[in-house]
Amino acid sequence: MALLVRLLPLALALALGPAATLAGPAKSPYQLVLQHSRLRGRQHGPNVCAVQKLIGTNKKYFTNCKQWYQRKICGKSTVISYECCPGYEKVPGEKGCPAALPLSNLYETLGVVGSTTTQLYTDRTDKLRPEMEGPGSFTIFAPSNEAWASLPAEVLDSLVSNVNIELLNALRYHMVNRRVLTDELKHGMALTSMYQNSGIQIHHYPNGIVTVNCARLLKADHHATNGVVHLIDKVISTVTNNIQQIIEIEDTFETLRAAVAASGLNTVLEGDGQFTLLAPTNEAFEKIPAETLNRILGDPEALRDLLNNHILKSAMCAEAIVAGMSMETLEGTTLEVGCSGDMLTINGKAIISNKDILATNGVIHFIDELLIPDSAKTLFELAAESDVSTAVDLFRQAGLGTHLSGKERLTLLAPLNSVFKDGTPNIDAYTKNLLLNHMIKDQLASKYLYHGQTLDTLGGKKLRVFVYRNSLCIENSCIAAHDKRGRYGTLFTMDRMLTPPMGTVMDILKGDNRFSMLVAAIQSAGLTEVLNREGVYTVFAPTNEAFQAMPPEELNKLLGNAKELANILKYHIGDEILVSGGIGALVRLKSLQGDKLEVSSKNNVVHVNKELVAEADIMATNGVVYAISSVLQPPANRPQERGDELADSALEIFKQASAYSRAAQTSVKLAPVYQRLLERMKH
User: Fold this and answer.
1) Which of 34, 281, 636, 658 is 20 to 30 A from 677, comparing alpha carbons?
2) pLDDT tens digits, 108-120
3) Domains along the chain?
4) pTM of the predicted model, to two decimals?
């Protein structure tokens, strides 16, 4: 029983999870950033927080680790200042901020936190000050003095001209009828305000920023006897329309309105949730070529993909963005949302013309440029944004452009522009057929390709897929960039022109005069059938010059010994297909002879056993051929290797002799064995 009593607290802690362990409840992102600011300010005394201030502005931010070292907010330089953390004050003659702020009612606390304008407007109403000074438990999101001063004059005039209705209602909208601290402010939650129970939207971001109807929390958790005060940077107003309703009433969204209706996405934009709509204006649609726009508008699937690419999965207020971050769209793509000074950026472009239009189910930012996803583009349009424009020009010149702009399901193998640095091939029947063999008859994704798979081309060839540790190759050409999957076609960016296989290894060798001596040797060694049949071989083929470079006596001896010749030739044949793009730094390739070949590649130069390869990647239906300028010798035939083997044998004998020497001193029977080992060492 005593053991059970001791274990019960641990069992309860495990059942309740990490938040209930001795470490205490998990801190919110805001609290973590505040904690970091306090850590950076501790050298200046107790309860001092380090604050980053944008140079030339009054904007201040509690700092996280990344911002501390970068010293930038939205790409703009900051200076570090040190001030009392929320809830504390200085004491004359003492270091830091050792004293807690005196606890008073909400009305008095407004003045303490720097919201004297809110305090002043509270005074002007007949009912609000008594509430703020009386009993109860309230939360007030108090606009800073600067927030009130930044209101348009006509808005401020309408408030102060009717203090007991307009102003009172505006202030009550900033209040909640209970105490709410930052650890309760969860991302996407709504609080019920004291004005007609209207909702207040809360967003608590991973970077520690908290927004209230997209107004940033400047200083939080100022306790009062009857509640809590949070200082915010804007005067907030009620939100009544959802995203779809805002689209319906804004003149600048006429084209967007029609597109949303045609796609059926209006049900999403008027439904529950918290989204960010990057809403393209009429001007944004007008920037797109009419042919492209009409194609997308007339294709329901492409149109839906286009619009989904403008909808982020969560609400993102402008004030929350202090550096670049990746955000996922309903389309499944990722957009880089960032900022440059006061401007928001999408994928590095400052295309947001109006920001933080709040809706009941999210927030809208106006953009003046369409964000067309790959899934709504033709192959031509995909290629226009990639480093393959030279190859696409070749397809167009060869009269194959319709394949790249139509509705045919294809995968285009497009070589990089750098492949053609020495010029492009002339367009003739051979080149056109070669280009047709760069088009696969299906829309593929590289992540589903597997080793040994065959792909059918429009040119009638079957291409093989080779999967290596760090490369994915189709015949001799390897994929050099991530796929771009369009509406009907997928773009694979390739590192070289593809050369389809034109026959067996034996066919390749017979058809090339450089290998006539090798062909004769293969026939003499009885290996012709091996290199003609189905298989997967990598053949390092010595040229005629390689054989002629051998000493005549050695060459004649080799050619006159069929068994030795077969052994040497088998050493030149690897038992798998290895194209140059799959080599990496070094690959040890097992040969048919049994020993391994060392194949290396650096700066597109291939070596085998440190011998230079003259030509790589001559593709055959049953393998690949590399032309080499020397005849390779198996390890057992190399003088150095034989010397190494002798040295190893001598070392082993020496070890045995040493062991027997020690034993022989104590055993007469072992003495003869020791003597025999000494004799072996002499030889």
Assistant:
1) 636
2) 999 999 999 999 9
3) 33-85 (no CATH), 102-232 (2.30.180.10), 246-315+323-370 (2.30.180.10), 377-494 (2.30.180.10), 505-637 (2.30.180.10)
4) 0.79
